[in-house]
């Protein structure tokens, strides 16, 4: 049953009860529009149940290692994060710097250091400029608009800050989930990094929260692909502070389903914003794969299509080359048989069970001239489906990633 | 022991004895520079032992199906090929057209239809214009320069025809291998397709030839990556007509090693040319991975690095962002540990066993300003190695693949 989700205008990580945030500009990154922020703290009034999903890259930075270790402890209360430098490939100095950031943020907030998480995104291989960060952390002020400032502080080549919040009411208790994400952009000389931080005032059982976050990640952040590269810093976290009251939510709790849906809705909105704001992107591409023989088939087919450079450039050129879609599902590894595949671009069916339709391709091209294009592929092999999000590939992507030289 | 390979100036598929070729312009494709060819026949004077390696895409065109079936018979004598239209996603009509092309080419050459192979590359989903192809095939004339014309006839967005030939002499018998390949370009509204056709005058045992071709493909064509997409038409063939004389070469034959090396040398040269001529490419990128725990690790790491958009744009921008190389090997699935990785860009070591060196990055950038950049990564986990080839990602790639609209 679909929960009755109410979106909060301009909501973000501080929309749930008991959350505050603030940010400063410490000059770790030397770009960005006003107001400039590159260092922020997001904190709960009380300790939270925490869950996390991390990059699968074999190489991770010390900040990720430290956060992963502390999430393993099951309790956290705050996140200190910076953009500009990712603190990856920085060895033992990097771990000392990550620890120091959490110490300073702990002193600022009065929160135990071991309950302070840390995230860094930006240049790889450079040490954090602790001479800039050390004096800046104590100056962070918490404010009502702090959530929006925090969202700005984690941006790298993102062109807009990304935040969302929504709530549901179950048996008289209102639960709110807020979130912010930063994208899938790379900065000189950086790599794609994705952060997605969710906050809630719901009380949550730790095991349930971890399982739910994993399920949410799999249909949201993990289905976004800008350029197939996997960052060494990708991190998704949820912190549940319980200030909404009531029993800890686990699978048997009446709010379990609605809260799962609420987290999923917020995370999917953030995922779509990440794709829409991919480097150089002008068009959000939503790829729906239906009729797959298994959920895994649907997922891999949708992701392969959404990440294919030939599909991306086909969207850039508003060219309804459904042949490229066939090629992409064909190489995806999913069970496909040409004779059962149907393809839609927007509302136009271009291939019906393996046979090209006589659709007017000029009309399809016209329909693609939008800031959002949906591609739907029915594999005709079963009942499973998945949705992935990507973006077009423009010359601007190449400029952003090539036109800076050391 | 390395065979004494002698390269043949301007050599190609008709350099080995007993081979002839010719091509015409049938107007299947409506672009290209003079002299224009889009339909060619490559034929041996006598039946050949044949081996083939085909696309792993689950969707293949009728031309590939027919060729694969006939290669399975073990004997072939000729190839008829066209560019402009790939004859994929064309259903039963596509199979009739493929059969008809081999019939007509058989009539032209006096070769049994079942020994005639066929390759088509170009637009997907459009039927072959048999009204153009039928009258054109009988007009093909074989000539001394036919190999070069055939090489031109299979080009799509390739900017140069690709051909090579070389020979070795073993115990008084000279064996020659010629080859042509077409690239990794896409045309409106097409996809990347790779053809690599090798000819030889060596006599060959069928089982040995198939095993050798597979091994050769794995270190040449299968290590080229332009944009990660896999065509529905990729085809690599070798036809051995035996006119050089002597016993059929199998694993026990003294020429087995040298002929394997000869095929490998020709195929690697063609693979490098494919990468160098990738769509929009200005720079050939050679990625050498050493010190891998297994051959498969070395291969996947080299391919992941060479195909990463972030690595490709780093080369475009002559930016020695070795962090992107770490990221790519980290996500490749190969066994990697940050502390044992060393990285070289050209001759410059930028990372030594996990520690950044104090190399002058401006110097490294200067060294990258070349039409060929070598990246070398020592994983420090074992003794296996592999080489992959790719190219930079330029705005021209985006233009080629996006700036045509239906």
Overview of the structural elements:
The structure is a homodimer of 406-residue chains. By secondary structure, chain A is an alpha+beta fold. Chain A folds into two domains: 6-274, L-amino peptidase D-ALA esterase/amidase, CATH 3.60.70; 284-402, ArgJ beta chain, C-terminal domain (Ubiquitin-like (UB roll), Roll), CATH 3.10.20.340. Chain A has eleven helices and 15 strands. The first copy, chain A, has helices at residues 62-72, 91-109, 130-136, 146-153, 206-219, 256-276, 295-307, 309-316, 322-331, 361-368, 395-402; strands spanning 6-7, 19-24, 39-54, 75-85, 116-123, 162-170, 173-182, 195-200, 235-240, 284-292, 342-345, 348-352, 355-356, 372-378, 384-391. In chain A, the strands form two sheets. In chain A, strands 1, 2, 3, 4, 5, 6, 7, 8 and 9 form a nine-stranded mixed beta sheet that branches. In chain A, strand 6 (162-170) and strand 7 (173-182) form a beta hairpin. The N and C termini of chain A lie far apart (54 Å). At the A-B interface, helix 8, helix 9, strand 13, helix 10 and helix 11 of A face helix 8, helix 9, strand 13, helix 10 and helix 11 of B.
């Amino acid at each position: 049953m679909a929960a009755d989700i109410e979106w909060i205008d301009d909501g973000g990580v501080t929309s749930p009860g008991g959350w505050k945030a603030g940010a400063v500009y410490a000059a770790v990154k030397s770009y960005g529009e006003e107001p400039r922020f590159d260092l922020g703290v997001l904190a709960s009034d009380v300790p939270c149940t925490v869950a996390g999903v991390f990059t699968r890259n074999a190489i991770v930075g010390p900040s990720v290692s430290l956060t992963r270790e502390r999430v393993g402890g099951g309790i956290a209360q705050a996140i200190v994060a910076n953009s500009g430098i990712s603190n990856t490939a920085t060895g033992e100095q990097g771990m000392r710097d990550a620890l120091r950031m959490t110490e300073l943020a702990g002193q600022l907030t009065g929160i135990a250091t071991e309950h302070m998480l840390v995230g860094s995104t930006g240049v790889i291989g450079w040490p954090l400029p602790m001479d800039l960060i050390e004096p800046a952390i104590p100056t962070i002020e918490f404010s009502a608009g702090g959530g929006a400032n925090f969202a700005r502080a984690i941006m790298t080549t993102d062109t807009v800050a990304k935040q969302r919040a929504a709530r549901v009411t179950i048996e008289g208790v209102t639960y709110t989930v807020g979130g912010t994400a930063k994208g899938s952009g790379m900065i000189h000389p950086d790599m794609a990094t994705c952060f997605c931080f969710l906050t809630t005032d719901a009380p949550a059982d730790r095991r349930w929260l971890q399982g739910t976050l994993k399920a949410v990640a799999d249909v949201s952040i993990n289905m976004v692909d800008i350029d197939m590269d996997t960052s060494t810093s990708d991190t998704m976290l949820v912190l549940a502070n319980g200030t909404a009251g009531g029993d800890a939510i686990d699978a048997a709790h009446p709010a379990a389903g609605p809260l799962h849906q609420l987290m999923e809705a917020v995370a999917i909105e953030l995922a779509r914003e990440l794709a829409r704001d991919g480097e150089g992107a002008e068009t959000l591409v939503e790829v729906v794969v239906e009729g797959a023989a298994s959920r895994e088939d649907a997922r891999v087919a949708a992701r392969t299509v959404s990440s294919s450079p030939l599909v991306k450039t086909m969207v850039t050129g508003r060219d309804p080359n459904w042949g490229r879609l066939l090629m992409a599902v064909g190489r995806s590894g999913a069970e496909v048989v040409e004779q059962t595949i149907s393809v839609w671009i927007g509302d136009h069916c271009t291939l019906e069970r393996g046979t090209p339709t006589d659709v007017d391709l000029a009309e399809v091209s016209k329909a693609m001239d939008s800031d959002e294009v949906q591609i739907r592929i029915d594999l005709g092999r079963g009942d499973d489906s998945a949705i992935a999000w990507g973006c077009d590939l423009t010359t601007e992507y190449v400029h952003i990633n090539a036109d800076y030289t050391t």
